[in-house]
């Protein structure tokens, strides 16, 4: 539910990083914040527990410049990944314009990725949105890990992307590998879906 | 590795069974017996530490606890943004049911759901009493 | 399964032209800022800022505030539903010198005001109610 301000020529769009707990959603935002510090005038907002787990969301407003004459601001959010936070997770999805699903590449997390994606589908449906239509990008995170068995990318594609068929990236939020390409992809997909209105 | 334990939250606090029993007694005697419908002691991550109700509540207390901790944290963050240390009062009033939040310590919140059978004034007094007692037990 | 979904309309169901936004900003200025409110925002439930005004002495992080306010409003609203209430009537947080007040304008919009000691809560509520009435007349 992006908002276009015809008066100030400004667009605000909401992009949500979704995925299982400890998958690296917050780390994605932290990397983006560090990388583009000079373009983000405010502090990143993180509502987290004492144990450093996301409790409600992280929030990062990101000014991406002019598109078709409009000053475009994307608001990046994360959801809490832990299963028990479904009630709050659902709230963050309200009005979402684009989703990055951050999957955890570790073998032992395989099932959690699938469950979380299913949860995304269910929660989108409560807002009458289809996971097959919402702008969506998959990110297979933690590819940098060397001391843990990782799922082959083909397996993750099969598990998560065989029906969706959306762009996907192998990434490492910790090192920053493919974090920015993931972001660029979801921004362009989101903008493409909004473009008809801007014309 | 830590990532196995997604659903387990490790806390800085440890409460023994006898402490939990005493806390539940306080929730019952100080709050539920005075007309509060449902009382939860939760931690800042939304985990339920102790709860008591009047036997007539079927609220989804797990969602309630998650939402309450998120609500509290969001309000706290808003306070910081506008330059306040914290906001003093968190109370939501409905037609028949209301919710009252109190910070017990930096780790815990006390959530009381109450209706018309207790006034806000009395509830506040009782909540303050209960918090004092709970803090003594936690020491 | 397409028919029950409405993603083609990713955009807000409301559209506001420049004249309407001008009128709304005038209301925010005349009814609230001129009455002593420090900062006021009209936001939608997804956390977008629709219109904003302040007394020129505020440098709050408005985008963060809007994100927090909308998410928090939704959390409170969900808690209300869980305890069987339609909605909670009052959302107001009091600080040492700055306070924040939330009002639902309609199902799509919230009005957020930040005010200090130069406006009483009573007057603020009156002014907010008037402003909401006028905003609702704009579309």
Describe the structure.
The complex is a heterotrimer of chains A (199), B (139) and C (139). With 199 residues, chain A is of the alpha/beta class. Chain A has one domain: Rossmann fold (3-Layer(aba) Sandwich), CATH 3.40.50. In chain A, 32% of the residues lie in helices and 28% in strands. Chain A has five helices and eight strands, in the order E-E-H-E-E-E-H-E-H-E-H-E-H. In chain A, strands 1, 2, 3, 4, 5, 6, 7 and 8 form an eight-stranded mixed beta sheet that branches. In chain A, helix 3 links the parallel strand 6 and strand 7. Chain A is globular and about 50 Å long. The mean pLDDT of chain A is 92. Chain B is α+β, with helices and mostly antiparallel strands. In chain B, 40% of the residues lie in helices and 22% in strands. Chain B contains three helices and five strands. In chain B, strands 2-1-5-4-3 form a five-stranded antiparallel beta sheet, with helices on both faces. In chain B, a hairpin with a 4-residue loop joins strand 1 and strand 2. In chain B, helix 1 runs antiparallel to helix 3. The relative contact order of chain B is 0.18. The N terminus of chain B is likely disordered. With 139 residues, chain C is α+β, with helices and mostly antiparallel strands. Chain C has a single domain, classed as Beta-Lactamase. Chain C contains three helices and five strands; from the N terminus they run αββαβββα. In chain C, a hairpin with a 2-residue loop joins strand 4 and strand 5. Chains in contact: A-B, A-C, B-C. Chains A and C meet through strand 1, strand 4, strand 5, helix 2 and helix 5 of A and helix 1 and helix 2 of C.
């Amino acid at each position: 539910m992006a908002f276009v301000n015809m008066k100030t020529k400004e667009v605000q769009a909401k992009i949500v990083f979704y995925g299982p707990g400890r998958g690296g959603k917050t780390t994605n935002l932290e990397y983006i914040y560090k990388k583009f510090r000079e373009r983000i005038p405010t502090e990143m907002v993180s509502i987290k527990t004492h144990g450093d787990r996301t409790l409600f969301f992280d929030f990062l407003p990101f000014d991406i410049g002019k598109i078709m004459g409009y000053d475009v601001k994307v608001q990046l959010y994360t959801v809490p990944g832990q299963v028990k936070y479904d009630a709050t997770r659902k709230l963050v999805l309200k009005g979402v314009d684009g989703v990055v699903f951050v999957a955890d590449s570790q073998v032992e997390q395989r099932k959690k990725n699938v469950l979380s994606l299913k949860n995304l589908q269910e929660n989108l449906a409560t807002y009458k949105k289809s996971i097959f239509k919402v702008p969506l990008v998959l990110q297979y995170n933690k590819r940098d890990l060397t001391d843990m068995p990782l799922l082959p990318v083909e397996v993750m594609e099969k598990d998560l992307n065989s029906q969706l068929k959306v762009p996907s990236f192998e990434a490492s939020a910790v090192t920053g590998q493919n974090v920015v390409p993931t972001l660029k992809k979801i921004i362009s997909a989101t903008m493409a879906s909004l473009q008809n209105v801007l014309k | 590795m830590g990532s196995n334990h997604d659903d387990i939250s490790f806390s800085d606090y440890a409460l023994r069974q006898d402490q939990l029993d005493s806390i539940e007694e306080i929730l019952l005697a100080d709050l539920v017996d005075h007309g509060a419908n449902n009382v939860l002691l939760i931690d800042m991550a939304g985990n339920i530490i102790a709860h008591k109700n009047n036997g007539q509540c079927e609220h989804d207390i797990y969602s309630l606890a998650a939402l309450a901790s998120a609500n509290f944290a969001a309000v706290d963050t808003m306070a910081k943004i506008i330059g306040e240390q914290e906001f003093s009062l968190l109370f939501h009033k409905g037609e028949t049911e209301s919710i009252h939040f109190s910070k017990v310590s930096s780790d815990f919140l006390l959530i009381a759901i109450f209706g018309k059978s207790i006034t806000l004034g009395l509830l506040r007094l009782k909540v303050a009493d209960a918090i004092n007692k709970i803090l003594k037990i936690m020491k | 399964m397409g028919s029950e979904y409405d993603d083609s309309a990713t955009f807000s169901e409301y559209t506001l032209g420049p004249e309407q936004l001008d009128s709304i900003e005038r209301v925010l200025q005349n009814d609230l800022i001129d009455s002593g409110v420090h900062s006021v925002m009209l936001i939608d439930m997804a956390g977008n800022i629709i219109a904003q005004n302040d007394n020129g002495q505020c440098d709050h992080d408005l985008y963060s505030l809007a994100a927090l306010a909308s998410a928090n409003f939704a959390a409170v609203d969900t808690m209300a539903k869980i305890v069987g209430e339609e909605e909670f009537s009052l959302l107001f947080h009091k600080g040492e010198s700055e306070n924040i007040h939330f009002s639902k304008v309609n199902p799509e919009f919230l009005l957020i005001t930040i005010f200090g000691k130069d406006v009483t809560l009573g007057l603020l509520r009156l002014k907010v109610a008037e402003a909401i009435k006028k905003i609702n007349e704009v579309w």
